[in-house]
Amino acid sequence: MEPPIAAAPPSGEPGFLRRYAVAIGFLAPAAILLGVMIIYPTIYTFIRSFFGRDAHEGFLPSGDFSGIDNYKALFTTDILVTAIKNSAIWILVAPAAVTAFGLIFAVLTERIPWGVGFKAIVFMPMAISLFATGVIWHVMYIKDPGQGAVNAAIGAVKGWVSPPGALSSASASTPALTGSPQTGYTLHKPIAAGGTALLGLTAIPPTDVPSGAKQAATPEPKQGAITGVVWRDFKPGGGTPGKVEQQELGLPGVKVSLIDQSGKSVQSASTGDDGSFTFDNVSGSGFNVRIAKDTFAAPFGGISWLGPKLITPAVIIAYIWVWAGFSMVVIGAGLAAISREVLEAARTDGATEWQVFRRVTVPLLAPVLSVVFITMLINVLKVFDIIISIAPGSTQSDAAVIAVQMWRQSFGGVNDFGLGSAIAVFLFLLVIPILLLNIRRFRREV
Amino acid sequence: MVWPLLFTKVYEYANTVCIIATEIKALKTMAPLLQTGNVAGGTSGALQTDFPTSVSNVFSKKPKAAMVIEGDFVPGVVASKNALKPVSGYNVFPFPAIGSARNYVEGGGDELMAFKDTPAIRALVKYLATGKAQTIWAKRGGYTAPAKTVPASAYPDAITRITASAVGRAKVFRFDLSDLQPASFGGTVGQGEFKLFQDFLKNPGNASGIAKQLETAAAKAYKSGK
Fold first, then answer.
1. Could you say which of B42, B48, B195 has the minimum Cβ distance to residue A306?
2. Is B90 at the interface with chain A, CB within 8 A?
3. Does the residue B69 lie in any domain?
4. Does A268 touch chain B (CB under 8 A)?
5. Is B44 within a domain?
6. Nearest by CB to B188, which of A52, A398, A413?
7. Alpha-carbon distance A216 to A199, whole Å?
8. Is A413 within 8 Å of chain B by CB?
9. Superfamily classification of domain A69-154+305-445
10. Among A71, A286, A335, B159, which residue has the least CB neighbours within 10 Å?
11. Within an 8 Å CB–CB cutoff, is residue B41 touching chain A?
């Protein structure tokens, strides 16, 4: 392109165009896309946030002007305030936790022989989508220890520490037995030696009957002994309460004790597979048989991870599981760039490993740590799909953050684009400081 | 001038109190059913059970529950989970009548909307409302025809026949409450009616508190037209 021979015209316009025609030609497609897909919608959203639900969506919104009503609603509606609170928790906890875990993993895996394998395993969650992560963790967090892996692990530890009872709950099938699962059951009328004790229990779900239970055996009276049976006094169709019938199962593993007239326990036994037990060497009368209350220790019901109190920590844990790998890899690269001599010098000077870590490694890693931290901060403000996929319907509003509510108020049922736009503008204002920080950092590097 | 205004205010207040009183009565009637021992997973587990799981809880090989309140699309789900046959393997019964109401069916459905008024559209809508057209769809199952002229034999199985005849016999048919409410009250997960009924399941003793919150949320939703 030949520069103009004459002096530049006063307005400078033709010269400018001719000079920069090529540049403009190359930039135009990107500039048009940027303008149409980002700048125009941003301005439109900003204007839309001042209108109500029924505004007409033209080139610019019109009608149903509502001023700052949407912004007022943002800070007064219960669920939106909860979303803001949850966002604050996410911002304070998640980036710091991800960076910390990444740092720990990177430092620890540097020296160990199978470090590469460990790094690969920790990094693997990054390969799946956040929504798939959500589905996996939703299933793991299920409250029922029979289904949710997390509660199964906790239940196993708990069961090892304090074993559950044979049954979880039961009621007496006839008035011949009195008591409750909290106090244990005893016979209403005492019996004498040579007598039989029928301890029928009902209200036991079929899955609660201990495995190995067999058909209940009617006890035979025995001289000088007290025999009895503890059984599930119910058969399909009902049957007669108080009588041992066909298809009624005995309850094995129940602890029964023989109580004498003074209320002291003189013998104890455990029921067999058919629910029967025998107390030998018994003489006299006025004996009672008791089913101990610790038979009814309820099994571990499971922690409610997906309930309103724990849902946000639960989702944050899943999020850290995904991103710790990214953080570890980036920090690991930064760690590899630190010259070994500096660390050796510090060690020769007598510093302990912890002091080397704190005073030498971390300060040298500071730029890498800040990159990871700021990336995670921006990520956390956008978090959306992992929350929607982990939280069940009943705790969606307890788990929601600003980005989730922005979607829900606009597209998720309410169809209030004015309120959704206001939430979007609020989120934009929150992100601006971090963007400016990032831009400043890039400028400094250049 | 003051008296009519005062009367209106008192009337509105009395109306609100009466409405809340009936809501409290309805909630208190449901409360004894909604105890932890009665629902699969207890009340907190039930709150975390999603909609498809609640149906498969009844019909999987190791069922967790004996019955579920659901629409007539369930036979398809049952068929995919096990080999139970209608009536002999599983069955339906109508939700118990409340008070003295009889032949009262509550359900969901699709409404046919015409956005233009042309003779062709009128003719199509008229045809779709006839028994002949609806029989075609009824034969495919999972659908209860509103037209009374659809024969019972058109339905593919006994369960669908039972539910369809209940609709045919009904004196009153109502869409369910969430379909009749504005979206932000009745149709959005995590807020409005959705959330408040779930809160009620968490705490069935709080009928009056929940009723008041329902009224507040509904008033807000109706006022803003959403």
1. B48
2. no
3. no
4. no
5. no
6. A413
7. 11
8. yes
9. MetI-like (1.10.3720.10)
10. A286
11. yes
Report CB contact under 8 Å: B226, A301.
no
Domain annotation covers residue B144: no
Q: How many Å lie between the alpha carbon of B122 and the closest alpha carbon of chain A?
A: 30
Whether chain B has a CB inside 8 Å of the CB on A421: the answer is: no
Smallest CA–CA separation between B199 and chain A, in Å? 8
CA distances, B143 to each of A362, B125, B169, B179 (Å): 66, 18, 16, 18
Could you give the ipTM of this predicted complex? 0.76
Chains A and B form CB pairs within 8 A to the count of: 67
The answer to whether A208 faces chain B, any CB pair under 8 Å, is no
Token pair of B180 as six digits: 């009749």
Domain limits for position B190:
1-34+183-226
User: Number of structural domains, chain B?
Assistant: 1
pLDDT in tens, chain B (226 residues): 677 788 877 877 777 777 788 889 889 988 988 888 788 888 888 888 888 888 888 888 778 888 888 877 777 777 777 778 878 888 888 888 777 777 888 888 888 889 999 999 999 999 999 989 999 988 887 788 888 888 888 888 888 888 888 887 888 888 888 888 888 888 888 888 888 999 999 888 889 999 999 998 888 888 765 5
- Is the CB of A414 inside 8 Å of chain B's CB atoms? yes
Helix axes B131-138, B119-128, angle to 10 degrees: 60
CA distances from A107 to A4, A338, A354, A436 (A): 62, 12, 11, 31
**pLDDT at position A5, please?**
54
What is the per-residue DSSP string for A29-46?
A: HHHHHHIIIIIHHHHHHH
CA-to-CA distance for A297 and A56, rounded, in angstroms?
Answer: 63
Asked if B48 lies within 8 A of A143 by C-beta distance, the reply is yes
At residue A201, the 3 state secondary structure works out as strand
Extents of the domains making up chain A: 69-154+305-445, 171-296
10-residue mean pLDDT profile of chain A (446 residues): values are 52 69 91 95 94 87 87 92 95 96 90 85 91 93 88 89 75 83 83 85 80 84 87 81 84 86 85 86 85 78 89 96 94 89 86 86 90 92 93 91 94 89 95 88 78
CA distance A392 to B47: 8
Chain A residue closest to B224 (CA)?
Answer: A53
Are A306 and B198 within 8 A, CB to CB?
no
